[in-house]
Amino acid sequence: MMKPMLSVLIDTYNQERYIEQSVLSAIDQDFPTEDYEIVVVDDGSTDLTPEIVEKIVARHPRGANIRLLRKKNGGQASAFNAAFPELRGRIVSFLDGDDWWAEKKLTAVAEAFEANPGIAAVGHAYYEVNDAGCAREVVTPATICQLEMSSADAARLAGCGIALLGTSRLSVRRELLNRIGAIPEELVFCADTPIIAFAVALGGAVILDRPLCYYRLHSGNLCAPGHEDTAKLRWNLRITDIFLKYITERLVQFGIPLEFANAFFESIRIEHERTKFRTGEENGRRKVCRLEWERFRACYERPSIGYLLFQLAVCASALVLPPRHFYQLLEWYGRKNLRRFRDILGKPQPKVPPSLFERHRLSAAKELDLRQGSARRA
Predict the structure, then answer these.
(1) Could you tell me where the DSSP H helices lie in 68-146?
(2) Rounded to whole angstroms, how far apart are CA atoms 262 and 272?
(3) Which of 38, 172, 271, 285 could make a disulfide contact with 8, Cβ separation 3.0–4.6 Å?
(4) Three-class DSSP category at 125
């Protein structure tokens, strides 16, 4: 049998509410049937997720393109590791079982790989939707761009665009997966992060400015920001510790300078450390002061004298207040939008211009159009 050009890998666990929309968005692509396969790996669901997939396989005209793999629950990395040997395509496109794709996703990805034969990965803009599937915002690069790790500055820029390569936006060459091997199974979520980092380091990634994916935010998201659940936050912290250590060590093994690897994860690591202080996992006012100064230097360059004095006042506050109270004060400051008064002192120059990776609120008309389009496809 001739191997397909592309494999779609859908990982899922207890997503009976969403899995049908996810699988149908992959099987109803504007892409030749014979050129791709769909592999759904069910990570030990205890709900009706596998039965829903089996129903699609039996009834959909393209159902023969879908294979369902069932395994004992072990997390996202174990699901990926179980599925990788089963994939036959030269390109692998990832899709979470609670997200879905636009109709022309696979065509756009295949064309990008063909136009850029040296790249390891393709990502793209995406719509952020709520639990009910209503799109409210779009996250996009200002233009088609390439992320790579040839210098510390390039790595820092790539780190800021990492969201555009998250699971349901990520497609990679199969050779990359063969090269990196099994992913540590301690990564029960965020198992896409090593693949993203190694792709950027070992070939680079092209980011398309077309929104080709609908990323769903709901209470079951484990690695999305904003959790109030302390237990989930602490679990997230532990997983982040694991992947930061593992990926940094592997990047160095692949010949990437440690400085570049650190720059790639700079913003993630700093926010990770801040969360540790917020949750009480770490303590120490001097540590907070150093971290806030490091964050300032990592994010900005050429600040005005007024802004520099403001940042020194922030660091002084970190020395006076207990860490939790300090970060509560910062959160209050952000909620009240008091930065408008800070800007009177002058604006610093961001090292990575915010305009490169933008978040836009959708108009009411665009929201309605997307909702009607999703309803027709469903």
Answers:
(1) 76-83, 105-115
(2) 13
(3) 38
(4) strand
Three-state secondary-structure class, residue 346: coil
What's at 46, amino acid-wise?
T
- Report the alpha-carbon distance of residue 31 to residue 258 in Å, rounded: 41
Burial of 12: CB neighbours in 10 Å, binned 0-12, 13-18, 19+: buried
Domain ranges of the chain: 253-350
Interval 120-143: pLDDT, tens: 999 999 999 999 889 989 999 999
- Kindly report the pTM of this predicted structure: 0.93
What is the Cα Rg of the chain in Å? 22
Please provide residue 103's backbone torsions phi and psi, each rounded to the nearest 5 degrees: -65, -30
Strand partners, 349: 301
Tokens encoding 365? 């008309």
Could you tell me which residues come within 8 angstroms of residue 111 by beta carbon, excluding any fewer than 6 positions away? none
Return d(Cα 92, Cα 99) in angstroms, integer. 17
Sequence-distant (≥ 6) Cβ neighbours of residue 91 within 8 angstroms: 5, 6, 7, 109, 110, 113, 171, 172, 173, 174
DSSP state of 142: S
Pairing relation of β-strands 36-42 and 6-12? parallel
Residue range 265-304, pLDDT digits in tens = 999 999 999 999 998 999 999 999 999 999 999 999 989 8
Lookup: tokens for 355: 């305009």
Instruction: State the distance between the two ends of the chain, measured CA to CA, in whole angstroms.
Output: 32
CB 306 within 8 A of CB 345: yes
CA-to-CA distance for 319 and 335, rounded, in angstroms?
Answer: 22
- Asked if residues 234 and 281 have their Cβ atoms less than 8 Å apart, the reply is yes
